[in-house]
Amino acid sequence: MDYRVFTPHKLLAPYVRYFSALNFNKLSGLSQIKVFADRYPHLVFQHNNGRSAFFRGTDALPPAFICGVKISPYILDLDNHEVVTVTFYPQAIKQLFGINVNELNDQIVDLINFAPADLLERLYYSRCLAERIDLLTEFLLKKINDAAPPDHLISESIRLINDIDIETSLNSLSNYFKISTRQFERRFKSSTGLSPKLFIRAARFESALQAIRDNQFENLSGLAHYLNFADQSHFIKEFKTFSGLTPKTFLFNNQKTQSVIPDNGVVTINHLVTEC
Fold this sequence. Notes:
The protein is an alpha+beta fold. The chain is 37% helix and 18% strand.
């Protein structure tokens, strides 16, 4: 399995976290993966010789789709495939596509509802990864001309939540911005699709996931304490809620339980050479 991550066009940087590409060969022995909770929406293009390579149960996913924030973990069955993914920042889906993000949680929507009819065909017949990323970049650059402005209060809230050294809560954030908790919660959920409390829980899970992947802690109790969980049992319960696995099971089966977007947390960005 070959996974690569690329920086977006500079004009897309406020909306797109990164582009990524994954080549998957079933001969590697991995034909089923678990998809974990993820605060970041995605645009996905995937295929196996023109057919969908992703299945949930017996249902084939659309070759190109937008998926909202993932809260509940689930299993994907995979055939051999190539996939290009655009990972957005939490506010970007509402800004670029005008979608009610609350309705996209744990949902997958065919890209044909939001893109020109010929985009899928052009993606199918593109010669290489660079050309596919260029096509998606061109599509998104047209979208930003009519994009809604960001809610800077929410952008700053997300920055504070992502700072592991700052303990955040609904009350602390609303007090920081000097607005009522009800008003803050309404604005936050309207922009990201999640309540502040759930977003904070998901962020903490992602921090735990990255720490376990990187072997940053000798034991789970130390990690639970670092991430401000009440105790180790609370940490295990939260981890299982968002991954479907206990931390120990994830650690022992790390190579078999990768997400379609393997890095929920820190990613290594490469610069794309846009030539085939």
